[in-house]
Specification:
The chain is α/β, with parallel strands linked by helices. The protein has 3 helices and 6 strands; from the N terminus they run αβββαβαββ. The protein has a domain at 107-225: Trna Endonuclease, Chain: A, domain 1 (3-Layer(aba) Sandwich), CATH 3.40.1350. The N and C termini lie far apart (167 Å).
Length: 236
């Protein structure tokens, strides 16, 4: 029968060493916890820093958006102001051109008046009356004749322009169609039409002549009749 050897009893050094090892492990564990906590704190700090940067970025984007909106509004107002100024300048220019056109028409009218008188005389027709700027309105209709040259049995209604166009010729045709109706004083007269201008393009002169109008154009300091020798004026 064999007998097991008894384990030796731990000595004081063994117990102290065990306590020391246990304490070391506790300290190591605590250090790891502290390190983990430090990492968590560092991560939280980074998150807070990232959030701060995000808020700063949002603030900067908002400021830039507001600044861009302000610049766009200022540019829109400036553009609108320039458009209004341009419209005003165009209107002023248009008004000035209209006044110049009227003055040119008046100038042509003064040049044409003696020519129309000579035209009548060349046909053996005595001139009794010369009426500039005749305006009439009757029965809801109206018209204006730049120059009306009249004797006892005939008249010439003259349209004066700075530059003659086909549209001017067509309008004068309409004027001639209603002239006697609106001016019944001359209902028994032979009515002739004439167009006069400082500038008369050849194609417009031909067109006016085809419609039966005398064509008067500036030549130097006088006005000449542009109709050819075979021209026969239309009588209304």
């Amino acid at each position: 029968m064999s007998t097991l050897a008894a384990s030796p009893a731990p000595t004081l050094d063994d117990i102290l060493r065990l306590f020391s090892e246990t304490d070391r492990k506790f300290q190591d564990t605590d250090r790891k916890f502290q390190d983990t906590d430090r990492k968590f704190q560092d991560t939280d700090r980074k998150f807070q820093e990232s959030d701060r940067k995000s808020q700063e970025t949002d603030r900067m984007l908002k400021e830039r958006s507001l600044e861009t909106e302000r610049i766009l509004k200022e540019r829109a107002l400036e553009t609108d102001r320039k458009f209004q100024e341009t419209e005003r300048m165009i209107k002023t220019l248009s008004d000035n051109l209209g006044k110049i056109g009227n003055r040119m028409g008046e100038f042509v009218q003064h040049m044409v008046e003696p020519t129309v008188v000579q035209l009548f005389k060349s046909q053996g027709i005595e001139v009794h009356e010369v009426h500039p700027n005749v305006q009439v309105e009757r029965g809801g209709e109206g018209m204006e004749v730049d120059l009306l040259v009249v004797n006892d049995g005939a008249l010439v209604a003259v349209e004066c322009k700075s530059k003659l166009t086909r549209e001017d010729v067509d309008k004068h045709l309409q004027r001639m169609e209603k002239l006697k109706r609106l001016l019944p004083t001359y209902r028994h007269h032979q009515a002739f039409g004439a167009v006069a201008a400082m500038v008369v393009p050849n194609d417009v002169a031909d067109y006016a002549q085809e419609k039966g109008f005398y064509v008067l154009a500036q030549s130097g300091e006088t006005v000449e009749v542009r109709n050819d020798s075979e021209f026969s004026a239309k009588a209304w």
